[in-house]
Input
Amino acid sequence: MVEPIVFGQSGNSFSRALMFVHSNVRTSFTRAFSLPYSSSAAASISSVSSPVKDRRQKWRQPIASLLERGGVQITREEIVRDEPTNNVPDTIFTKVGLQLHRRSQHPIGILKNAIYEYFDSSYGNKFKKFEDLCPIVSVKQNFDDVLVPDDHVSRSYNDTYYIDPQTVLRCHTSAHQAELLSSGYKQFLVTGDVYRRDSIDSTHYPVFHQMEGVRVFSPSDWESSGKDGTTYVAEDLKKCLEGLAQHLFGTVEMRWIDTYFPFTNPSFELEIFFQEKWLEVLGCGVTEQEIIRRSGNEENVAWAFGLGLERLAMVLFDIPDIRLFWSDDERFTSQFKEGQLGVKFKPFSKFPPCYKDMSFWINESFTENNLCEVIRGIAGDLVEEVCLIDNFTNKKGMTSHCYRIAYRSMERSLTDDEINDLQWKVREQVESKLKVVLR
Ligand code: DAH
Output
């Protein structure tokens, strides 16, 4: 059911910002769990030496072996392990300490502060803010505590980064809801980096940022309204988020979509009409009573929401590719200033893409996310898109996939030699790590 709301304006089409929606939001979802795949191996540079590789290795930043989060030191070994139950590559480890959301001159930090501003002014500074909670969480925090079913696809090694069978890199900021509720917080915002194995295109990156908001109501809040708690809280939630969207986008057309999340009931998504398309910007709902009951707030009712900061920032700042958020190039970073929401990004010259196709016979455990992890492990942010362009099954039942890989740097022209070298390594590692047969 779609409930259009007033206001007027436009955006990009993104998909899969929200992981737990019932609909076909993550197209790469497979019901079957794929085999644990150790991509720490995928991230290492090929052992086969070539002159070009040696040259490129000199450009690479060394991988720090120690990070600091919230005053706590995290070693590489705590996150990346060469074991089949660990699928975290070095490329992911290097992102754990960066915390783009805490940089006040970065679009993600500017957006976070604009959202804080809305909550501070609408609720008299009552929302407690958390933005340095450690992204290493237990499976219990990430999934069980928010009632994600045992067979939910988001628990698979194909979708989530596992450090060991009981520990993950959080795939959503909802991982902190239950504990904060149990600790007695009644209104809070949690901002943080979240991690998901995914395909590669201009709006998907394995690390991105979310903000979670929760507000708990007690019976005295709704009793005089003549409404039941759930109705009252759902109305308050929608009012709050419509106000937020207006604060960020100005006059904008919005609509609510009924959806499903394991942790809320009823559940909604808010879509914004932007650049001629409906863009899903957040998921929310009335928190499942079981979560509230377990936190010791039995008689209360709460709402919660989760929004993807990159997705909103891409629209607000006109940022065309999600990789740019990670760029240290001054031509990107110098365009944003503290407190200036919605300054339009002026692209510096766009360098030409180079396309390379590769075809192979897949096997039963093949997944596109595993393929993308191997490619990212080799090409890093030089890969812009990986797209399935052909797919057929022959009479013997063998299935062939042809993928087109787009290589493009955001910062410079790539040489033919460099791309050929990358592609050669990709072919070699796709064959050896994914056990597919190149055609
Ligand atoms: N955790 C959800 C996701 O990442 C987003 C979300 C939806 C958070 C609804 C919530 C919520 O708190 O109530 O897809």
